[in-house]
Design brief:
Helix 1 crosses helix 8. By secondary structure, the protein is of the alpha/beta class. The strands form 2 sheets. It has a 7-stranded mixed β-sheet. The chain has a two-stranded parallel ribbon with strand order 1-2. It is built from 11 helices and 9 strands. The protein has a single domain, classed as 3-Layer(aba) Sandwich (Rossmann fold). Strand 6, helix 6 and strand 7 form a beta-alpha-beta unit. This is O-methyltransferase domain-containing protein. Keywords: Methyltransferase, Transferase. GO terms for molecular function: methyltransferase activity.
Length: 281
């Protein structure tokens, strides 16, 4: 899928280009007869970009997991903002995600989408304008990423597919920075469990360009015990560990992916390979 008449994204860095992959996965889901996430803006955004999306070779299993983890994070944002209508939502590594327009949050909630300069420039060209939706140029590797975001309001901080691309010191610094800046709130993100050498090798050797793109940027092998972040920052308290393999939406997966997912969910180690973790502070 490449029109040659859309927005040129050739100047994006390799890390910034991972935002295109995530957006295309949401687009493919939106085209299914029974979508898992059903993002109404996904295809519209992708359709305005000049990029060989088909060449990424995004498999259906990745579409399923990407759509489901996004939906699960949406649900947690929706619940938090319902209880805290004066909240701020902070999406780290937001990419081109249309969360501020997809998730039905109270009109008093401000949504801050943080990402690198090239991605934010795309967001400002492609996404609708809203006085409650703010696109912020910042690298989460810099201590200043939270500057300018209200600190006294309850904060729902989310990250979707981000932490695998960061080093452990950067992740630890992010977790510490959020409790320094925000008075109270929650942190929710998707996690892959511990990624061993075999999985990393499989990603590098996979024929799809998508995996080559991801594998080249992979930065953190992950952890098995969901309480590890509590050791990094004692102000964080684990309140939820939810495996995607146990979500009811897996009934919408294509048959062979649905069966494989159910089998994975029967074993603790494999169930941890796709989960949402949520912490309160």
């Amino acid at each position: 899928m490449r029109s040659g008449r859309g927005i040129d994204v050739s100047e994006l860095s390799p890390l910034e280009q991972t935002a295109l992959l995530s957006q295309y996965a949401r687009t493919l889901d939106s085209r299914w007869p029974q979508p898992i996430l059903g993002d109404p803006l996904a295809a519209e955004i992708v359709g305005q970009i000049d990029f060989d999306f088909d060449g990424l070779g995004v498999p259906k299993s990745v579409v399923c997991q990407s759509a489901l983890r996004t939906k699960m994070l949406d649900e947690r944002v929706r619940a938090f903002t319902s209880d805290n209508p004066d909240a701020v939502v902070v999406e780290l590594g937001a990419g081109l995600d249309s969360g501020p327009f997809r998730v039905d949050v109270p009109p008093t909630v401000d949504w801050y989408s943080i990402d690198l300069p090239g991605v934010i420039a795309l967001r400002r060209r492609l996404l609708p304008i809203s006085r409650r939706a703010h696109s912020v140029i910042a690298s989460v590797a810099d201590h200043s990423w939270a500057d300018g975001i209200p600190s006294q309001r309850p904060a729902m901080v989310i990250a979707n597919g981000l932490f695998a691309f960061l080093s452990e010191p950067v992740i630890v610094a992010v977790f510490c920075r959020l409790t320094e800046h925000f008075r109270s709130g929650e942190l929710a993100f998707n996690d892959y469990g511990r990624i061993g050498w075999f999985s990393r090798a499989a990603v590098k050797l996979a024929p799809q360009r998508m995996f080559a793109t991801v594998g080249a940027q992979w930065g953190y092998p992950g952890f098995q015990d969901a309480r590890v972040p509590e050791q990094w920052n004692p102000k964080l308290k684990l309140v939820e560990e939810a495996s995607l393999t146990h979500a009811p939406e897996i009934e919408l997966f294509p048959e062979w992916i649905r069966l494989a997912t159910k089998v994975s969910g029967m074993f603790e180690t494999s169930a941890r390979k796709a989960r949402i973790l949520r912490y309160r502070f």
